[in-house]
Design brief:
By secondary structure, the chain is of the alpha/beta class. Helices cover 46% and strands 13% of the residues. Strand 8 and strand 9 form a beta hairpin.
Length: 270
Amino acid sequence: MKALTIPALATATGLFITGVVAQPKPAATTSCSRDGFCYCIHDTLNSPINQRVDEIRSLIASQRSQGKAVGYLSTPLSTVGGGYFAINALIASETKDRIEQQFGPRDVWVLNPGASDFSLPAEANGADYMWMWTQVLEGADGLGAFDFVYFAGPSDFGRHFGLDGHADLEKLDIAYDDLVKTNPGLAGKVDKRAFRDYYGLRASVAFSLGSHDEWNIVRAINAKRRDADSTAGIARQMGVFFDGKPVAPGLFEASIGAGTARGCKRDAKN
């Protein structure tokens, strides 16, 4: 291994040699939505996020102008806990297509947050993305921009891998071996056991930070719709699906643990 020079060592360790002072972290600020969801976001990303929100709202308006019902797909994407981004993004695309085929592409359009068209600069993290998607979900008035939201479940992932209830974990072992041959980056980020257990036992929005936030956002929007119209508010709630089926009525009003919807720590101390 080549020895690091002093300047290179300073860069690699994130320290200034003079005084051994750590380099400052990028500035971040707590931003809160109309419905009270707060995130710690990079200050440098305010403009890109606002631009994306405007673009996505225009896209939604365009689809709605065609007479379509507009849906939002909530699905795990990150490489974490045994999941792998490239696979999750592919499954998200497949799920979007399947929902649109189920209801008819002439009459339904589903927004897939995993599409590359909606990416932010490389330094964006989960909170930055959720700040963007929270504004999109809530809409300009906080009453929601969508007719329904689809939360991906185990069946959506199992369908991709051909899981049929017979030796499913073994099928995932084989799938991993096949994927590594064409996607060598997988082995360096997710080991075989973690991959198998994630896609066989946990792959769904239940284990996604962002999806937890999205569930609570949808719950808050529906509560706001009910309160806004005591006569017909219940009938005007967004439809909510999980794993291909409409959720039970009581779940519309049930909140779950927060994902990334937290303010910056330093703000909380002030």
